[in-house]
Amino acid sequence: MGQGAEPRRGHAYDAELGRAVARAQEGDEAAFGVAYRLVQPGLLGYLRGIVGDDAEDVAADAWLEIARDLGRFKGDGAGFRGWSATIARHRALDHLRRLRVRPRGTATEQDVLDLPGPHSTHEQALESISTAHALELVRGLPRDQAEAVLLRVVVGLDGPAAARVLGKRPGAVRTAAYRGLKRLADQLGAASVTDESPRTLGESK
């Protein structure tokens, strides 16, 4: 299964995805192909940040499960992205357990977040997140930060949806994503992070 195009997001995207999923549940194989093309780029980027070069294989396993259990899914396009990300995450963790690979981590993060500057942004980090180099940097983040960043930026889930995938409170995911984006922005040469502060990364705690 190929990498495909860059991830697409927005209401029109989710509406198109929702229609494709509904038709696929009625047995329309072409519609399932549409859903795959819409979801796969973000899903593959997320998996690359977790399992690296094994992302294609893990994604293939995830799609087999998605196809098998499609009839059980209930929801819209945004819900399908979250559901498929949850399945992909389970397959990725199974893969890591089989390889007996411990998640990469870094030194203990500081407990107090830096106050954002008035004019700085994390646009450089967001624009570069889909590159292989940036994904490798994401893999070097603590696991909670890496997954939060990948789900929010690459898969395009909102705060509550990302929290459901990870089984955590939205506030915790929001903070993890903020810290991860700040570290990534610093590594990519951006001045600092403000737009995705803990107060704006999620909708509720």
Which structural category fits the helices and strands? mainly alpha
The CATH top-level class label of the largest domain: Mainly Alpha
Give the overall form: globular
**CATH-defined topology of the largest domain:** Arc Repressor Mutant, subunit A
Number of helices: 9
Unreliable stretches covering 5 or more consecutive residues: 1-7, 103-124, 191-197, 199-205
What portion of residues belong to β-strands?
A: under 5%
Main sheet?
A: none
Helical content class: 55-70%
* Mean of all residue-level pLDDT scores: 76
Query: What's the CATH H-level superfamily name of the largest domain?
Result: Winged helix-like DNA-binding domain superfamily/Winged helix DNA-binding domain
Number of strands: 0
Radius of gyration: 17 Å
Counting structural domains, the number is 2
How far apart, in Å, are the first and last alpha carbons?
37 Å
CATH architecture of the largest domain: Orthogonal Bundle
Encode the helix/strand succession as letters. HHHHHHHHH
Question: What features would you describe in this structure?
Answer:
- It is a single chain.
- The chain has 205 residues and is mainly alpha-helical.
- The chain folds into two domains: 89 residues, Rna Polymerase Sigma Factor, Chain: A, CATH 1.10.1740.10; 98 residues, Arc Repressor Mutant, subunit A, CATH 1.10.10.10.
- Helices cover 63% and strands 0% of the residues.
- It has nine helices and no strands.
- Helix 2 packs across helix 4 and helix 4 runs parallel beside helix 8.
- The longest helix is centred in the first third of the chain and has 23 residues.
- The radius of gyration is 17 Å and the shape is globular.
- InterPro entries: RNA_pol_sigma-70-like (IPR039425), RNA_pol_sigma-70_dom (IPR014284), RNA_pol_sigma70_r2 (IPR007627), RNA_pol_sigma70_r4_t2 (IPR013249), RNA_pol_sigma_r2 (IPR013325), RNA_pol_sigma_r3/r4-like (IPR013324), WH-like_DNA-bd_sf (IPR036388).
- This is RNA polymerase sigma factor.
- Keywords: Sigma factor, Transcription, Transcription regulation.
- Belongs to the sigma-70 factor family. ECF subfamily.
